[in-house]
Amino acid sequence: MTVTQKCPKHIMVLANAELPQACRRAGEVSSFLQSLGVCSTHGSLYDEADQQALRLGEFDMLITLGGDGSMLRSGHLCAPLGIPLLGINIGHFGFLVELGENDWKEKLPGLLEGAYRLEERMMLRAVCIRDGEKGESWDVINEVVVCRGQYVRPIQVSAMMNDSFLTSYIADGLIVATATGSTAYALAAGGPILPPELRNILLMPVAPHLSLDRAIILAEGASVSVSVKTRHEAVVSVDGRDPIIMHNDDQVLVTANNKSLKMVRFQDPGYFYRNLTAYMEHNPMTSIKGNEKFVTK
Q1: Do both 251 and 153 map to the same domain?
Q2: Whole-model pTM?
Q3: Domain that includes residue 127, residue range
Q4: Which one of the listed residues 50, 68, 172, 239 is annotated catalytic?
């Protein structure tokens, strides 16, 4: 591979603390990087002190050990800082993780020579609006989900695009996803798989009843407003975080984010298609670890 990227000099290595093997391996990765002349330290992805050390700007790359849930959490740390993220898979298959548990020693020397490429993943920005007032907001890597709460009853969800009515659903919910998120909840709901480099917004209903049951793909510049009509509980959740209660007529405004997630890749851009069959044939239920989610702690 042509050497075109910046050679990282200060690398933070963070592990999913819920996976003991990841914690042990993080120490090995950090020691290996040090033996190659890199300033490196390791810690826990869930430790606030370790997160704060990263935010101070002393590191120019993050390596995380875990699965796709760990990659999401790490991505939310990296994107605001503009630093690249590299994942090492621990224990199960993942769409987002680049290296396997047993091949990182082979690949990391090339990383330090700049022999990698950066894949920029589009992100979204979501803002909750109640009574015309903006409330909580989020950066989004995978998806925004507006859906029913604890009661097993559909809700009415309306979608506006650029202030014009687009469509409405009677459904369990509506997913607004990035290309990255197209392989997450949207895929489980029957949505299309989008190549990771696409900068589009995907709308995918969940269990629609007598409503449009197809995905809608919008351009990057679209502004999407999702509102709910319900007499019972509705919620909004972003990237698997704990849900927030939505009231009748609440809205969530979703737009393209000015931040992007930079992911380190050693494979050429065709890797996604070559590996797609393996992704789809993998059954995460063969391992309890396959149920890992991005959970705020």
Answers
A1: yes
A2: 0.90
A3: 123-258
A4: 68
